[in-house]
Amino acid sequence: FDSYFMSRTLENNRRNVWFAEYWEENFNCKLMSSSKKDDSSRKCTGQERIGIDSKYEQEGKVQFVIDAVYAMAHALHNMQRDLCPDMSGICLEMELAGGKKLLKYIRSVSFNGEWTDEGVLLRPIKCLQPSELQGCRTSE
């Protein structure tokens, strides 16, 4: 996440509607006349770099968001594999499964990976069948 976020610039991050406001706040500068910053702020150049021209530290709860995304992805993958074994994509049974069934799959996911400081998983995650109620575990 850190590598990705610190590579964001005004040019390559157009999809995040709050990024310009973050940029102004992070670099204490003003992008345009419609800015929320006062007129005494210096003008942003666009050449500023996160983590180089400003202090950057990842919010401590980012890993919880990453874990939640992984859990949902593994749950959906396991559900699709069980309910649609001979198909790629979503079959009718999965489409009609409902929230309670999906919740069962989410609860059956677990992972305990070893991560580097850069957020790289050292050991791969091995997904088992949800019916075994072991979910996804790191392989030894």
UniProtKB/TrEMBL annotation:
<dbReference type="InterPro" id="IPR050726">
    <property type="entry name" value="mGluR"/>
</dbReference>
<keyword id="KW-0325">Glycoprotein</keyword>
<dbReference type="Pfam" id="PF01094">
    <property type="entry name" value="ANF_receptor"/>
</dbReference>
<keyword id="KW-0675">Receptor</keyword>
<dbReference type="InterPro" id="IPR028082">
    <property type="entry name" value="Peripla_BP_I"/>
</dbReference>
<protein>
    <submittedName>
        <fullName>Metabotropic glutamate receptor 7</fullName>
    </submittedName>
</protein>
<dbReference type="InterPro" id="IPR001828">
    <property type="entry name" value="ANF_lig-bd_rcpt"/>
</dbReference>
<feature type="domain" description="Receptor ligand binding region">
    <location>
        <begin position="42"/>
        <end position="113"/>
    </location>
</feature>
<keyword id="KW-0472">Membrane</keyword>
<keyword id="KW-0812">Transmembrane</keyword>
<keyword id="KW-1133">Transmembrane helix</keyword>
